[in-house]
């Protein structure tokens, strides 16, 4: 049987080999399933010495600084392009600094929205929260217009990143 190795895309750490077994039900009443290797919880990673997502990013740079963190391509007929851990860190600091320069405060009471499809740019906006203790809020088309408005009002986002004009028009 083949075993799958889980590698954290954030830290580059090899966590544990995953067995090919199917998920098992751990709560029959709620129908909650887990991988059989983790029915008693996730592994304790405190030995790594990271407690915050910002520390996870710094640890990833220490381990894999010049290695690719995000790889992407615009279409299937184009080659992959990559950002290294160090490049990602510089980009997210620039995005976060831009938010602060726009008047947002570096605080876990500062919420900003990301209204975009899953992509490298989405991840970069998401990661930009962590060096500045801000809180990213995902906004998705699948919520419908009422759901989008509800999320924006409830979270009191101060800024929204959008990946295309249709989404911006949807907000207005």
UniProtKB/TrEMBL annotation:
<keyword id="KW-0547">Nucleotide-binding</keyword>
<dbReference type="GO" id="GO:0004467">
    <property type="term" value="F:long-chain fatty acid-CoA ligase activity"/>
</dbReference>
<feature type="domain" description="AMP-dependent synthetase/ligase">
    <location>
        <begin position="66"/>
        <end position="164"/>
    </location>
</feature>
<dbReference type="GO" id="GO:0005783">
    <property type="term" value="C:endoplasmic reticulum"/>
</dbReference>
<dbReference type="InterPro" id="IPR042099">
    <property type="entry name" value="ANL_N_sf"/>
</dbReference>
<dbReference type="Pfam" id="PF00501">
    <property type="entry name" value="AMP-binding"/>
</dbReference>
<dbReference type="InterPro" id="IPR000873">
    <property type="entry name" value="AMP-dep_synth/lig_dom"/>
</dbReference>
<protein>
    <recommendedName>
        <fullName>long-chain-fatty-acid--CoA ligase</fullName>
        <ecNumber>6.2.1.3</ecNumber>
    </recommendedName>
</protein>
<keyword id="KW-0443">Lipid metabolism</keyword>
<dbReference type="GO" id="GO:0005524">
    <property type="term" value="F:ATP binding"/>
</dbReference>
<feature type="signal peptide">
    <location>
        <begin position="1"/>
        <end position="23"/>
    </location>
</feature>
<keyword id="KW-0067">ATP-binding</keyword>
<dbReference type="GO" id="GO:0016020">
    <property type="term" value="C:membrane"/>
</dbReference>
<keyword id="KW-0276">Fatty acid metabolism</keyword>
<keyword id="KW-0436">Ligase</keyword>
<keyword id="KW-0732">Signal</keyword>
């Amino acid at each position: 049987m083949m075993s799958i190795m889980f590698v954290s895309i954030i830290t580059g750490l090899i966590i544990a080999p995953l067995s090919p077994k199917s998920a098992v039900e751990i709560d029959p009443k709620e129908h909650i399933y887990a991988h059989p290797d983790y029915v008693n919880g996730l592994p304790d990673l405190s030995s790594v010495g990271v407690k915050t997502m910002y520390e996870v990013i710094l640890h990833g740079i220490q381990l894999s600084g010049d290695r690719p963190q995000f790889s992407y391509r615009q279409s299937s007929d184009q080659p992959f392009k990559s950002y290294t851990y160090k490049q990602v860190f510089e980009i997210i600091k620039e995005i976060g600094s831009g938010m602060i320069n726009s008047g947002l405060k570096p605080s876990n009471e500062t919420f900003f929205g990301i209204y975009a499809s899953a992509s490298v740019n989405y991840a970069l906006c998401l990661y930009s929260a962590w060096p500045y203790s801000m809180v990213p809020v995902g906004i998705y088309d699948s919520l419908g217009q009422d759901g989008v408005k509800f999320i924006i009002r409830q979270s009191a986002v101060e800024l929204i990143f959008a990946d295309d004009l249709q989404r911006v028009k949807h907000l207005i």
